[in-house]
Design a protein that fits this description.
143 residues; mainly alpha
Length: 143
């Protein structure tokens, strides 16, 4: 399986994620954890909480359209695994985010930037688990 690394696009995406995290903290005093933001839409704590969360999710969802307007083409999205794998993976990630009191964006982007020991430990676990999963899928199962 080939992976196409696009350094400039990746850098631009990382800068935008960092900017969004800084602005959300500066303007609302909130951590930009995608799982927490999404769960706050499903179980809102009031209109002001729901509105900024909905705006954040709408911004994430509209990114492909913004890219199309800027470049003339939609980003190519290829998912090289069956739908069942995506569903099982989503459930596992959701359980892990709940168990770890946060997701990769909350711990990895925001928590590590604040030098949170809990977030650093969580991110190390995320990364080790990711490396192990990729190794097992590519070399053990043969995906």
């Amino acid at each position: 399986m080939e992976t196409a690394f696009t350094p400039l696009t990746s850098l631009a995406g990382g800068l935008l994620i960092g900017l969004a995290a800084v602005l959300l903290m500066a303007l609302h005093g909130r951590i930009a954890g995608a799982t927490g933001i999404l769960s706050g839409i499903v179980l809102p704590a009031g209109w002001s909480e729901w509105s900024w969360r909905a705006a954040m999710v709408a911004g994430m969802a509209s990114a492909p359209t913004a890219m199309m307007l800027a470049t003339g083409t939609y980003p190519e999205i290829t998912v090289p695994v069956p739908l069942a794998y995506l569903i099982v993976g989503g459930v596992i990630v959701g359980f892990g985010a709940s168990l770890g009191n946060g997701c990769t964006s909350g711990h990895g982007v925001c928590g590590m930037a604040r030098f949170s020991p809990r977030s650093i430990a969580a991110t190390l676990v995320f990364m080790a688990t990711t490396a192990l999963t990729v190794f097992v899928i590519r070399h053990g199962i043969g995906g």
